[in-house]
Every structure is written in C-alpha cells, then in structure tokens.
Amino acid sequence: MAGAYSWKLAIPLFLIVLLAQIRSSRYAIFAWSILVGCGIYSLHLATLQQSFLAQIAQDRGQVVLHAKVTSDIKSTGHKVRGSNLHQPQNSFLVRATKVQWRGQESSLRLPVRVLSKFNSTIGVGDEILLSGHLILTKEKRVAATIIADEAPEALHSAGKLSKLLSDIREEFRKKASRINSDAGSLIPGMILGDTTLQSQSFATQMRRSGLSHLTAVSGANFAIVSALVFWISRLIFKRLIIQLLITSGFLVIFLLLVRPSPSVLRAGVMAAVILLARATGNRRNAASALAAAITALLLLDPFQSQDPGFVLSVLATGGLIFLAPEISSRLEKWLPGWLAEILAVSLAATVLCTPYILFLSGEISALSVLFNVLVAPSVAPITIMGFLSVILLPITWLSNLLLTLAASLAKWIALVASFSLATPTLRINPIFFLSVILIGLLLYKAKRNLLFLALALIVLINLSPRLSFPGSGWQIAQCDVGQGDALAISLGHGAGLLFDVGPDPTLIDRCLKTLKINKLPLIVLSHDHADHTFGLAGAMRNRSVGEIWSNGGALPPETLNSIIRVVKLGDSAKIGDTDLEVLWPKPYSSSSAQYQNLPGDGSAENNRSLVIKVIHNGVSILVTGDIEPEAQSEIAAQGALSAVDILKVAHHGSRFQDQGFLRITQPKVALISVGRGNSYGHPDVSLINSLLEMGSVVRRTDLHGPIAVGWRFDSGLKRYIFTIREMRKEWWRVQWR
Fold first, then answer.
1. Is 442 exposed, middle or buried (0-12, 13-18, 19+ CB in 10 A)?
2. Considering only CA atoms, which of 184, 179, 168 is closest in space to residue 124?
3. Which residues lie closer than 8 Å to 89 by C-beta, 6 or more apart?
4. Rounded mean pLDDT of the chain?
C-alpha cells in the first residue's frame, strides 16, 4: 500500500520538478496539462472514496436508496469467488439522490453500482427505491456497490421520449436475438451500443483477432451514419451550414437512441470531429477539434482516462484524420477510389489501435491487420442497414429485410474472428513492449543511424525466444489463474499433466497455449470447488484429453464424455517415465463427516482434496489441493510422507497449515497459486516466513505471475540444480532465479 501512495506522490512531484526545468513554452503547456488533469482526476476520486456512502460501505451498512437509473441492466454471468460459484446477477448503474441509514435521511448525488439477483423491468431514467447493504468496490467511477435485498421498487417512470427510445432498443434487440448467432449479437452492439447478447467466447475471439473495436458502437459508426445523412443533405441543400445543421440534428437523435453514456458521448463527439474534418478539408482544424473534444470529455468524466475504450476511440479518430487521407491517396494508384478509401479507414484505425490493444491484453493475432482489411468493406453497409432497420421498425417487413441483410454481412465478421483461434498469437508483456517503443523513440530523437535501430530490433527478435516464458527447459509450471489453482507438468512433445484448472476457462487456456501443451493424458481435479474446476472447458479446448481423476465429488458438465476415474489413498499410475501416487483422501465413507464445521473455507471438501506425489525426471513434487491441518496431520501420521523437492502449497497459502506436515516435506521450492488483492488474506505471512526459515525458495503467482521450474542433475555436487523462470507482473517480463 505504501508503494502505491509513494508512486501517486512521486508522479506530481516529478511533473513539478520538470516544469521548473522546462524553458520551452510548448513543453511547459504540455506538462501543465498533465498536472492539471492528474489534479482533477484525484479530486474526483477522493470525492467518491471519502463520500458518505463509502463510509457506510466500510461497515457493510444496510441502507435504502432513492436513485435514478443511468444504465441498461446487464447480466454479470457466473462468477467464481473463492471456492464458490455464484449465479448470474443483474448489474446496472444508478445516481443516488437520497440515502436512509440508521433512521436518518440524507440528500446526495453520487454514482452507485447495483447488483441484484431479482429480475426487474426498470429502464434508464426511472426513479427507483433500493434496499440492501453497501460494500466497498474497486470500481473507481462509483462511490460504492449496493447488494439488493429485494427487487427495486419503481417510483416514477422515465419521460415519454426516454420510454420510446427504450422500447425501440428493446424491440431491435429482440429482432436481433432471433438470428441466434454471433452475427445477431454483433449488430445491436455496432448500431446501438447494446452488447448484452454477446457471449464471452465471442468477445474473446473479437479481441484476439484485433476486431474488438467493432463489438460496440464507436466514433466510426457514428461517422458512417453522419456521412450518410450529410451526403443526402448535400443532394437537397447547397449551403454547407444547412447540411451541417441537419447532420448534427440526426447525430443528436442517434446519440439519444444509443444512450448518452460516457462511451457513447465520446463516440458522438469523435464523429463530429471527423465530420468537421471531412467538411472543411482542413486537418489542422480537425486536430484542434479533436484536442478540444478530448479535453471536454475528460472534464465531464475524468475516469474515462482509464477507460481503454476512450483511448481506442481517440486513436481510431486520430487515424481517420491524420493517416487515412495519406493511405487512401497512395492506394488510389492501384485501386478504385471508393475501395481505397474503405481500406484506408480500416488500415489507419488498425495501425494506431493495434499497439494499444497489444499493450492492454498482451496478445493479439499476428494477422490482425489482415483481419481488419477483410472485414473493412462490410462495416459501413452493416452500420447503414442496421441504422435504417432501427428507424424503419414500424414497417416490419422492411426493417426485417434490412436486418437480415446486415446479419449476412455480420456473419462474415464473426467468421473472420473465429479464424483467430487457429492463427499465431503475438504475446508480449506490456512494460516490455512500452520499453521497446521508448528506446526506439530515444534512438530516433537522438538522430542515430536508423540501420542501427533496425539491427537492434533484429537482435531483440532473435533473442526473444531465449528470454520468453517458460523457456525450453521447463519441467513444471504454476499457471496464473487468479484466485485458483492450476499446475502443469511437461511430458515433452506438446503433452502434459494438469492438476486443477482454475476458475476461468480463458486463463487456463492461455496458460496451456503459452506452455505449448496440446495433449493432456491426465487431468486431476483435486476437489469440487469452483476455483479448481470451473476452468475445465478452457483446458479441454482444442486438446486431446485422456483420463480425468476425481475424488468422487461433483464434476463439471464438460466431463460428460470423458473417462472418469475416482481415485483414493493407495492408488497409483505411471504415465511415460512419470510416477504418480495418491496419498489422500481415504475412502469417501471414512473421510467426510469428521471434517464438518471446521474453520476455514469449505473445510469438509477441502480436506477431501486429492493429494498426489509425483516423481518426474528424478524430482519429487507434492500437489496438495486445498487440504487443511486436519488432513495434513493425518497424511503425516501415515508414514508415507517424506521430504520433497517441490511443494504446491495447500489452499493458496492459507494460514490453516500443519507445521509438522511442512517440517516433513522440507520443500526446496514452494509454489503458491493465489490471486492478487484477494479478500482472504492469502498467502499468510507467517506461512511464508516458516517456508523461508526452512530454506525454501518461495514463489507466488500474485507477485510473480506464471512460474516455470526447470532442473538438471549436477554430477559433481550429486544433486539437482533448480532454475526458476517468472513472467513477473511488476517490471521485466521474464526473470531468472
């Protein structure tokens, strides 16, 4: 925590010192702008964090809120918290105007996130009454989150215009849902900013393919609609001012239809900037308008500065203003003008957005530029036909026809996005990527030989396999799956053993792809808790799977067609040259009832976790699931336990550990799989100190990210030498230990 505050203090101090040294007025204005922006952001953040609602939330206070709905209701989907799988909830934003707490009523005006398991028909603009308890949240743009105890009570409905617009959105969403495909879910997002129909898997495909900017309405979509209206108005009116007024009017209507949320306002403003650039043909005016738009939007909502959508929108708009005309003029030498312009728009947006997407997610398809070029011709027709389908909803047959035509083109985008699963993915650490860019800029600024820069990049690219994670000699890897567990052992030639799969299919799939594992002769599910089993679909995705071992508890539905083997104490197996021995649990009938009502998180099931000793290439590995002191002490008492080389520490490093168990195992390397900033206090400081005192090398995924361990036998020392490679989160992508 102290480190976070020191950074917050260091940045403005650095800017102040920089201002004192700057003599150029141009750079001084730039530095002052950053300093003022940081000040405004900090002021808004402090106002929310120190608000009356935030103070109530510290004690999880029970309140009644009078509020106005400011966003559509969206389902959160299934969430894994700790060992539990929580059912989907409805989530939406409100602006609280009154709060009743401990018999007193106070007036205020603060944004609040609502989570409710109750279905409701409320819409944007409705005034409602909410009852529930407030909790603190990491979401910076709200003062607190309220967990509703009952369905919200509608006090006053929104105005007729708001109701009409909501009905139009709902009707269009229903029409699109009948298409029953990814294409059907894409169109409401592109036209109305409504992404509720889009599945998580489709969103992942769009992100990996570099097409994520198409999943929701953007400045480009607004610009296309504006261009259509502007073109029609030019056919009717000769004066530019009338053309601009008519186009602006339609832009406002479209803005209200899509909903004037910060992201939509941003898209509308960016569209206006593009429209100005096209109407005047003056890029300098457009650049000034873009700068003014950015300033106004950040003053309206400073938290947009941390919104990736805001940055992508600015970059895409900048590309359309500064790069698209140049690219179009060059392409026109070989292509028709209309085709050159369409491709130029896509290329310009892709060139500027791709580095930022890579910086954010750490991965993007190596063919993202090609994907954007392939779908570029379909974006404008989808937008135009979708917009007309919304406008012509009263004429059912015509609206349906336009929507069907738009969907046929949207299927092409969905098809292209699906190719990303089978194409090479470029992965890189954001800080490493940023460092390369900065070094390149410094070299360029210093007017060094560009040939030297090219040679440096070639050397860097050739060295990257040697510096990349997990390295060629890895034997065991602790995946970073957040607050969950997943450990892989390499069998060579793309095969591996997997012990637990974490809570998130995407995270475990990403880890296994990084490890280049495409065959899993064995998956071990240690026990029936969501943070160990819910990622199974991702582990099995595009991989051949042999057996799945279980302790006899409930299994995820993905195991339906798999070979299931329930194992217990005394069972063993040999896979290749790797030996596995089950040390726990005892048969189900004798090891369940005695562990009820013990301290800890789900102790009865935790203490039934499979505990497996693995001998792999001469090294002993103990995988412990979530066993707690009671099971640990029984395992130690059986006499089969001995010192091990590598220990997967039980229960994410919980404080519930048996010291006798640790003294027997005496691990040389201790791996802890744990989520950063979790609310359980994992890992326990005293546990880590105990391991360090034993001489163990301790690594934890919340600080070090994924961890890979390799080893070699030193014939002189007559022992194994371990090498640990980390994909760290703090600074450099890979570090050796």
1. exposed
2. 168
3. 75, 76, 79, 115, 116, 117
4. 80
DSSP SS3 for 466: helix
Q: How far apart are CA 691 and CA 705, in angstroms?
A: 20
Q: Could you report how far apart the first and last alpha carbons of the chain are, in Å?
A: 26
CA 220 to chain centre: 23
Domain spanning 59-158, CATH class:
mainly beta
Supply the DSSP string of 236-264, one letter for each residue: H---HHHHHHHHHHHHHHHHHHH---HHH
- Work out the percent of the chain whose per-residue pLDDT is above 90: 30
Q: Please give the pLDDT value at position 256.
A: 79
Q: Are 613 and 644 in contact (CB under 8 A)?
A: yes
Q: Cα separation of 264 and 299, whole Å?
A: 16
pLDDT at 77 over 80: no
pLDDT digits (tens, 9 = 90+) for 418-473: 876 666 666 665 556 655 665 665 555 555 555 555 555 555 554 454 456 787 78
Q: Which two tokens stand for residue 305?
A: 């500065």
CATH superfamily, domain 476-736, is Ribonuclease Z/Hydroxyacylglutathione hydrolase-like (3.60.15.10)
Under the banding of pLDDT at 50, 70 and 90, the label for residue 651 is very high
Q: Are 676 and 581 in contact (CB under 8 A)?
A: no
| β-pair partners for 106 | 99
**Residue 640: φ, ψ to 5°:** -85, -10
Q: What are the tens digits of pLDDT across the range 541-572?
A: 989 999 999 998 888 887 777 889 999 999 99
Q: Cα angle at 623 between 617 and 629, to 5 degrees? A: 145
Distance CA(595)–CA(572), nearest Å, equals: 25
Contact 487, 515 (CB under 8 A): no
Give the burial class of 428: count Cβ atoms within 10 A of its Cβ; 0-12 exposed, 13-18 middle, 19 or more buried: middle
C-alpha–C-alpha distance, residues 297 and 110, integer Å: 19
Amino acid identity of residue 115, one-letter, is: L
